[in-house]
Amino acid sequence: MISPIGWIIIWIGVFFDILGAVGLVRFPDVYNRLQASTKCVTLGTFGIMIGIFLLKGFSPMGIKALICGGFLLLTSPVAAHALMKGSLHFGTKMWKGSVVDKYGEDKLGGEQIEKPKEEK
Amino acid sequence: MRYVIYFIIGFCLWLLLTLSVNLDHLVAGIIVVLLGTIIFGGYFTDKPIKFLQLHRLFWLIIYIPVFIWCMVKANIDVAYRVLHPERPIKPGIIKIKTTLKTNIAKVFLANSITLTPGTMTCEIDGDYLYIHWIWVQTSYVDKASRIIARSFEKYLRRIFE
């Protein structure tokens, strides 16, 4: 009974991983891409780990998968946060459809939003 | 004191990872965990007694399902935005104010915000957090704090403070 549930969770995880990759291609700037890839890839890989745990039970492999899932939940947001802060300090502009940039107003002296290109 | 607690937690983690009581594994584990304790023990929490207070563990166990449910919602939200042909996004960076005081609670709040629908932490500056929001509903500090952070703060305050 456990085995089909484990496989279903693994496939849901793979599906979300693929969605994260698609978001990486479709979204316009680095911040939105980080949003898509961080959320989807974290839950997707966490799902794969939980699925392996359900398939293998309390064997060495299952326990390792569970611990890896826990570490992933703790470290993946921190890595994304570091990338985002790095690109903010580097001065990467936001996409031209962005509506507000409080960080740029407070810290960088003006909104860091890309200007729309003028038609020739 | 906190070095001892750190050592015990690290060694339990090592035992779970290897799952064997072979003498070689135990000696290697003691050496590795000792090194880790010497290098990183100074960054550990000041009051390790908090690990033994049961009501904190109780609220942590309640918090985990809430958090995983929020993660699932976040992924369905991103899936909708990725697969929609017109790509409905309206991004922006806004500022919220948190009522949490300790550093570890702020770290967990930032991590939780990153993994929940449409929001992602850019920077923590004292009591203020800068949030990248993929669909900006409001740019006022109070209203945005209520929408984004309140639901987590009531759990995190009980766990960490």
Note down, in words, how this protein is organized.
The complex is a heterodimer of chains A (120) and B (161). With 120 residues, chain A is an all-alpha fold. Chain A has one domain (2-108). In chain A, 75% of the residues lie in helices and 2% in strands. Chain B contains six helices and three strands; from the N terminus they run H-H-H-E-H-E-E-H-H. Chain B is mainly alpha-helical and 161 residues long. Chain B has a three-stranded antiparallel sheet with strand order 1-3-2. Chain B is elongated. The model of chain B has no long low-confidence stretch (mean pLDDT 84). The A-B interface holds A 16, 19-20, 22-23, 26-29, 31-32, 34-36, 38-40, 42-44, 46, 60, 63-64, 67, 73-74, 77-78, 80-81, 84-85, 88, 94-95, 97-104, 106-107 and B 13, 16-20, 71-72, 74-75, 78-79, 81-83, 87, 89-95, 110-111, 114-115, 118, 120-123, 130, 132, 134, 136, 139. Chain A: Pfam families: PhaG_MnhG_YufB (PF03334). Chain A: The chain crosses the membrane at residues 6-25, 37-55. Chain A: This is Cation:proton antiporter. Chain A: Keywords: Membrane, Transmembrane, Transmembrane helix.
